[in-house]
Every structure is written in structure tokens, then in C-alpha cells.
Amino acid sequence: xxxxxxxxxxxxxxxxxxxxxxxxxxxxxxxxxxxxxxxxxxxxxxxxxxxxxxxxxxxxxxxxxxxxxxxxxxxxxxxxxxxxxxxxxxxxxxxxxxxxxxxxxxxxxxxxxxxxxxxxxxxxxxxxxxxxxxxxxxxxxxxxxxxxxxxxxxxxxxxxxxxxxxxxxxxxxxxxxxxxxxxxxxxxxxxxxxxxxxxxxxxxxxxxxxxxxxxxxxxxxxxxxxxxxxxxxxxxxxxxxxxxxxxxxxxxxxxxxxxxxxxxxxxxxxxxxxxx
Length: 276
Known about the structure:
Mean pLDDT is 87; it is low at 5-21 and 259-276. This protein is 28% helix and 25% strand. Strand 1 and strand 2 (47-55) form a beta hairpin. It is built from 7 helices and 10 strands. The protein has one domain. It is globular, with a radius of gyration of 21 Å. The chain has helices spanning 4-22, 57-61, 73-80, 142-158, 178-181, 185-188, 257-275; strands at residues 32-39, 47-55, 67-71, 90-97, 120-126, 170-173, 204-206, 213-221, 237-246, 250-254. Strands 1, 2, 3, 4, 5, 6, 7, 8, 9 and 10 form a 10-stranded antiparallel β-sheet that branches. By secondary structure, the protein is of the alpha+beta class.
């Protein structure tokens, strides 16, 4: 009987630790790629879901092997309903930036991991992996990218205030987090306006399409070639990788899909010739 108070204390401590583990802060590091979701109507329209895809640099350098990054079906189902993959009013996209500072003059910033200040990573809707049109050269000036970087900075500051779910996603709710919502995905990515106040045509893709995966292509937009490694098209997009969301909630990266596909077809053709 004397052990019961101790057992109760231990149980309470265990529950406290479990609660702390379940409510760990959402992690974000400068230069990470953020995957965001929003519903424009119905269930979940006042909630955003976020997932950290990690640093943009490996995708730029081709050193990321691709494959499954995570699975957030649990969170997507809880927020947007079990039929989330079939909803045409549910959107997602990817965004990332290192700095909004100018590349020269007062307050300037040097290159980070080979990317000069104001280098942006953003997604474009794709029917299949690698099929999105590239952003044209000179579409976005350095000052314009700086404006977008400042706006994105508000969201980046907000993200660590969120708590992670069991599948490493984070949920932002308008009713209980109105201040944070002002820097959330829905506010910064209007489906009928310019993403982050700058990127026309938006950066998102919607679900409700045929097939078991829905795609966005990731593009890198440089404000200048100065200090860039590798170099790129100033003000325009360079294809880096494709992200796919599966109907089962999986998140996958597909590096150089055209090359991978051609290689697979070549091996298959050789196998067929040998069998013949």
C-alpha cells in the first residue's frame, strides 16, 4: 500500500513526459523546404498543415537519392477528412528561401551553401514528374524576390510556435491561433492571387486527379549569378526535383525523373532483348 503514492508519482511523470514528447515544437532551419496544405472550402478550410522536407541544397546538388520522406496520412485525414486525396479544393505546395537581404550594399548577405541571398525555391503544379514549365528568365527581379523573402520570413518565424504531430506534421488553426494564421499558408498563398505577394500563377497543386500520386516540380530562382554555385538562370526557374504526394499520404522525392525513367526503360528493353 505504501508503494501506491510512488507508483502514482511515476505514472504522472510518465504521462508528463509522453505529453511533452507529443507536443514537441515544429523544427525549422533556415533554407529548409516547407510543404504546406490548405483547403479552400469545407472540412479543414480554417486549418493549415505543414511538413519540413529538409534542406534545399541536396536537391539542388543532385545528392539527394530521392524516395519516401515521410507519411502524413494520419494528420491529413484528421484535418481534411478520410477522402482528402479526392478533394479538388485541397491544395499543396513547397517554398524555401535563405535570406531576403540584398546581395550588395548596406545590409548585404553573402552566399549560403552556394546560393546567393534572395535565392528562392518554389513549386509548380505538374501533371507528371518533371512536366511543369520553367519560370522564364528575368521574370522575378532581385528586389521582387526580396519582397517575397520578407513575407516568407514571417511564416518561417511562425512555424516553430507550432507543435508536431505523431507523423511530424504540424497543424495551424485559425480560431485558436489567429496571430499565427496571419502568417500561415492560406493567407500567404491565395489560390486566386500571387503567392507571397509576388509569385504569379501560384505555387500550388490541387488533389482530386486521376492516379495514385499528385506532383509538384521544385524550381530554383536566382536573383543574381554572383556567388552562385551552381549558376543558374537569373530571375527564372531551374528544375531541381519533383515531390509526389501519394493517395496513402506518402511524401516522396523524385530526382531527375526523365533520366530515371529513361534508364529504367533502357534496362527493361535490354532485358526483353536478352530473353528474346
